[in-house]
UniProtKB/TrEMBL annotation:
The chain crosses the membrane at residues 21-41, 287-312, 341-362, 382-403. It is a multi-pass membrane protein. This is ABC transporter permease. Belongs to the ABC-4 integral membrane protein family. InterPro entries: ABC3_permease_C (IPR003838), MacB_PCD (IPR025857), Macrolide_Exporter_MacB (IPR050250). Its main location: membrane. The keyword Nucleus does not apply. Keywords: Cell membrane, Membrane, Transmembrane, Transmembrane helix. It is found in: Cell membrane. It comes from Christiangramia crocea. GO terms for molecular function: transmembrane transporter activity. The keyword Transmembrane helix applies. GO terms for cellular component: plasma membrane. It comes from the Bacteria.
Length: 420
């Protein structure tokens, strides 16, 4: 099958008319090029959107209190209530599939007044009272010092971790903030670490202007008692938070005497649900890319099939002689199929190489640009996509040569020898 004579015949057949062969091959080259480029562009868009999640634990939800919209057990409509630290233990006990529950309190906010002072420098920053688990839910790089630990929680230590944006606003260039003190709403906290958020989206700069302190110290310093402003809740792997959120909300409703059908009393944001929607969008985009790419590739395959039919017609005499000399139908069929597959693979690989070059150039240009505000990053295709493309090429080559091959073996030796 792989004899030198066989390959010589293949090359002779394909080079007999160079211009026709190149035009035919271009259809397949263009089809596979479009397929790879579409998949790479889809991946680039996916990377650009996903980087805004900043490595955040996506199987999470955020929950806060709202106004009760229905009267219940003698309590009026429009009643306000607060989460309590005891709610955390109750949720953990009744919903065991949860991995982290981080109660949070917050000072400041967008457009707030200056609430942090260090020497002569002041600034308005978000200040969070948190537990150590929050770093697992909102990943950040600790650039110096350390993060909150449970000793800080138990001892109610007035310590703080500040973002690089806070450091730039309150400290001189090159000054080490670790071990110094900042004053938050008049209360002194010692800085024990600095961080940089991993998020690279549009809120990246704002994400570096936050301060984290132990939840217990926050509650004591700012007279919060056992109140909790809101919670960040993450489920264990294999347990979508979307399937658990009703159980969590029901625990809160039962503990705070809220009507079971009051859907407005507990506010929540399901990050996993939003993440799943985004993932579904990119699955659809990938399917569209394959659909369009395969259709374009199919047009090239049809072109190869047509050319192979012409080649078979031109070689009718040759086929007749070979049949008369004892060539089997499978030998004739194999020759035509090999020519078709060879032409398809060569032109397809050229398309893959061309697409790879274009992707490299795009990535090179992106590396020279500030892409922090762009929803497009690192367009690429993995080895699996290349293998799929090769599989499509081989199957396509076989399909392109099948009809001409069948036509070739139907030619009777006597009729073929009579053909001029």
């Amino acid at each position: 099958m792989f004899s030198r004579d066989r390959w010589s015949e293949i090359m002779e057949a394909l080079t007999a008319n160079w211009f026709r062969t190149v035009l035919t091959a271009f259809g397949v080259l263009w089809g596979i090029f479009i397929l790879v480029i579409l998949l790479a562009a889809g991946k680039g868009l996916e990377n650009g959107v996903m980087k805004d999640f900043g490595g955040m634990a996506t199987n999470s939800m955020f929950m806060w209190t709202q106004v009760a919209s229905k009267p219940y057990k003698g309590l009026p409509k429009g009643r306000r209530y607060n989460f309590e630290i005891e709610d955390v233990a109750a949720i953990k006990e009744q919903v065991p599939a949860l991995r982290f529950i981080s109660p949070r309190n917050q000072l400041g906010g967008f457009g707030g007044a200056n609430n942090v002072v260090r020497g002569l420098n002041t600034g308005a920053f978000n200040v969070y009272g948190d537990y150590p688990e929050i770093i697992q839910q909102e990943p950040m790089d600790i650039t110096s010092g350390r993060f909150i630990n449970y000793s800080d929680i138990q001892d109610k230590r007035k310590v703080a971790i500040i973002g690089e944006g806070v450091k730039a606003a309150l400290y001189d260039i090159g000054e080490d903030p670790v071990g110094t003190y900042i004053k938050i709403n008049g209360v002194n906290f010692m800085v024990i670490g600095t961080y940089k958020k991993k998020s690279q989206g549009g809120d990246a700069e704002e994400g570096q202007k936050q301060i984290y302190v132990p939840f217990t110290a926050f509650s004591q310093a700012f007279n919060m008692g056992n109140q909790v402003g809101w919670m960040a809740i993450t489920a264990k792997d294999g347990f979508p938070i979307t399937n658990l959120k009703n159980e969590i909300i029901d625990v809160i409703k039962a503990r705070h005497t809220i009507h079971p059908e009051d859907d407005r009393a507990v506010g929540h944001f399901d990050l996993f649900e939003e993440y799943s929607k985004v993932n579904g969008l990119f699955v659809a985009l990938k399917a569209v890319a394959y659909f369009v790419g395969v259709l374009v590739l199919l047009s090239g395959i049809i072109g190869i099939s047509n050319i192979m039919l012409i080649v078979v017609k031109e070689r009718t005499n040759e086929i007749g002689v070979r049949r008369a000399l004892g060539a089997t139908p499978w030998s004739i069929r194999g020759q035509i199929l090999m020519e078709s597959v060879f032409l398809t693979i060569v032109s397809g690989m050229a398309g893959i190489i061309l697409a790879t070059g274009v992707i490299w150039l795009v990535n090179f240009q992106l590396d020279q640009m500030d892409t922090s505000e762009m929803m497009f990053a690192n367009p690429s295709v993995n080895l699996g996509v290349v293998m799929i493309a090769l599989t499509i090429l081989i199957i396509s080559g076989l399909l392109a040569g099948l009809i001409p091959a069948q036509h070739a073996i139907k030619v009777k030796p006597v009729d073929a020898l009579r053909t001029e």
